[in-house]
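Forum: Protein Structure Q&A
Topic: Joint prediction for protein chains with partners

I've read a bunch of threads here and the consensus seems to be that you should model interacting components together rather than docking separate models afterwards. I'd like to see that in practice. Below is the full input, 600 residues plus whatever partners are listed. Could one of the regulars post the assembled result?
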Amino acid sequence: MTILYFIDILGTMVFAISGALAGRDKKLDFFGIAAVGLITAIGGGTVRDVLLGSTPVGWMEDLIYLTMIGSGIIISLLFGKAVLKLRRTFFMFDTVGIAVFTVLGLQKALNLGVHPVIAIMMGMVSAVFGGVLRDIVCNEIPLIFRKEIYALTCLCGGILYVILDRLSVEQIINTIITVSFIMIFRVMAVKFKWKLPDIS
Amino acid sequence: MTILYFIDILGTMVFAISGALAGRDKKLDFFGIAAVGLITAIGGGTVRDVLLGSTPVGWMEDLIYLTMIGSGIIISLLFGKAVLKLRRTFFMFDTVGIAVFTVLGLQKALNLGVHPVIAIMMGMVSAVFGGVLRDIVCNEIPLIFRKEIYALTCLCGGILYVILDRLSVEQIINTIITVSFIMIFRVMAVKFKWKLPDIS
Amino acid sequence: MTILYFIDILGTMVFAISGALAGRDKKLDFFGIAAVGLITAIGGGTVRDVLLGSTPVGWMEDLIYLTMIGSGIIISLLFGKAVLKLRRTFFMFDTVGIAVFTVLGLQKALNLGVHPVIAIMMGMVSAVFGGVLRDIVCNEIPLIFRKEIYALTCLCGGILYVILDRLSVEQIINTIITVSFIMIFRVMAVKFKWKLPDIS
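Posted by a regular:
Agreed with the consensus. Here's the joint model:
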């Protein structure tokens, strides 16, 4: 599916930008910024592929990913402040990226023959783990463990996909529904400030 | 061996509880607590399997592990304070879990054909690495690197197992001896406050 | 190539020493110091092998690596202060180690059939990632992300190697040239305090 592929590589670039900007915030040097951008962009898919034993990991097989990551890093370096002003656009790309990463990760896992529950987890890992690694590397408690509802979004999206799949919904339609669901869920979560109950 | 399997999944739950409680301490939200519980429970086995190239990693092949982890997390959320009061019982389960994880990890590595020295290391990794990842994710210097004698316990247990194995002791008897040894060693280490010499 | 192998295991020991000394600085106990030494020494090669799917990872197949690491850790414990006084010698070994790790990692990746760009990255990962993991485990923002020019050195060395390889330079000569280049580049970078432009 060409559109998914297109969004996938665009999402990869958005993640690279988010990582590179985090690196700037931490006053890293050029190389550090590039490294954090790279880790953020490929972290999720890499962890998924390593756990599933699908190696060499995905981004090694298609250089377009590294190219997009490199572009994202350069954009962050040249236009860092401008990018920050475009926060809204940026947030939309990020949301699309997360949705697509979830579905692509889940599909890859299903194709490798694991149980749907595991596939749902792998979808989440694909979408979420880049940000987790970014925060670990920047020496912070991962954001996602603190206040984001966003992993839950991927979880619900993954469950929806598997249910629709069981109901024999065609893959392309299922993909469109699930991606839209995740995007809408996330936008609403941010707009209406949904948050998980505070337990601690 | 049914008993080992039973203790293995029980140990997994205890590790999930220990992780989830650490997450509560750090004031993470619901999802963060679940994530730290999960990582603590599966971290050791996952790292072992990835290093040995035995993928998809073990817990993906038998959903009982995720089920037990989910139960452990729910228990921590509902009865967190009560669990803390049961510290003694909890400590015993933890000790049994560590002992069993060490032996199972070691056996798995031996079955994959690596050198016994590597297998001993993989036994330690199985028992210890979940806690290491828990501490990294919670942004602390891993506890085990600071004051616990508990990795040493797994090391000695692993060496004992390999020696007995060389002496042709039957696997089931060897397992019982090694598991008991690790448990007794750890209980005594805590009771008599054994610690490693301070070098720094 | 016997010399490369010799430098490889020597470099592994130097990395173990650097890790163990970092562990001492953090006031870890005996086991913690050993763990940080180990992680620093094997981290780069392990990450490379896992990403490439070349498992069991390299150091499991040849116990000389663990032996050298063990020796390095013992040296750090017994002669820690003396080692620190030998900083210059130490720095030279470290430099040789980095150069050799880069080239060996790159060659391994090329042999596994990945694209040269990926191979260059894997060379860098081999040389650099042990130190990254050391800093993460010690709860610091990786040094390399902050002020070292040293990843760039490995990057340039890797590119040089691939270019010479394309120009059909024999492998042994290429290796000598690249290793020398990386060493000279690094020594000059430190001597003349080269640093990357400050962007943040």
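The mean pLDDT of chain B is 84.
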